[in-house]
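Q: How do we represent a protein-ligand complex in a form that can be generated token by token?
A: Start from the inputs.
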Amino acid sequence: MMDNMTKQEIMRWLQCPAGSELDTLQARADKTRHEHVGDAVHLRGLVELSNICSRNCLYCGIRRDNHAVQRYRITLEEIMDCAFKAVEYGFGTLVLQGGEDAGLTAAFIGEVIRRIKTETELAVTLSLGERDPAEWKMWREAGADRYLLRFETSNRALFDRIHPPREGHASTSRIAMLKTLQDIGYETGSGVMIGIPGQRYSDLAEDIQLFADLQLDMIGVGPYIPHPQTPMGNWKDGGMGDEQVPNSLAMGLRVVALARLVCPGANIPSTTALATLDGKAGREMGLCWGANVIMPNLTPLKYRRLYEIYPSKAASTETPEQSRDAALKQIEFLGRSPGRGRGDSLYHLQYK
Ligand code: SAM
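Then emit the structure tokens for the protein with S-adenosylmethionine bound:
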């Protein structure tokens, strides 16, 4: 099932010059995508629940200590409006993402899941950060299907440098958390940022191998985009020269392709961060380099610009209708078709 690539092989793909050799990577990834998950592009409606966050990740625009951010938390009824929109638009999944906000209580999220599950047939994906495993279990029992938690980088020292632990807690292992999520029974997704200052090609190659080792159902990757109101906003590469991974669209596309090759049956979105670097073209390119998922943003417009994890986030002023129309146009342009149904992970359905 998995294409077991060596670390050296992955590093060679990450570093080979643009040109005919790189074209073969794109062609292989696109063929693998076609053979394993087909031509359907699954649409997941994204709802950004809250930009309140108790964490202080050095890279993230909604970190606790960014006092320039006007904070919000969405209401249950607003989430349900998004869910009904997702159904109306023919999407199969609602993705609920947010900061680590204590106000998004276990009971509130449980109620949200129960309402969505009783009133629609949508699959529910949660992306609410590092929470108590008892809460993850409760939400799974309430009907949540999937959980996304990026490990950001497999280089532990780098992760610890950019990701201070919860106050009063020891530093955490997101890899152990992903295994807990799998044990609880979630379709589990993870991923990384590409081009974090201090990230070497060898780190990124290990990240890609870890995607396969973890047997992820979903893999979301995107370039790291500096945010000026964060401590990392003006970090340089730390003098690593040629070893430093660039935070470019081109590198993002290589990682999407390699993720497809090492996890052929995974659901892989063409992410907003890819789209942000080259207007809408980044998203189309992602779909040509192995991705099979798009996540149109359904967050009410009044909140959209407040969820600024990095500057100039793509689609931050688009209405939900415009996000849907843009996604459908891109799918049609590429000669692909919008996915029908929930678009569950093949690994979860068949392989595990
Ligand atoms: N709080 C949850 C978590 O940490 O998993 C979900 C929300 S968090 C904002 C979602 C993702 O945004 C992170 O996993 C991270 O990879 C990405 N992100 C945050 N800041 C970013 C930046 N400056 N550039 C690119 N991606 C960023």
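The chain has a mean pLDDT of 94. Residues 200 and 333 are 36 Å apart (CA to CA).
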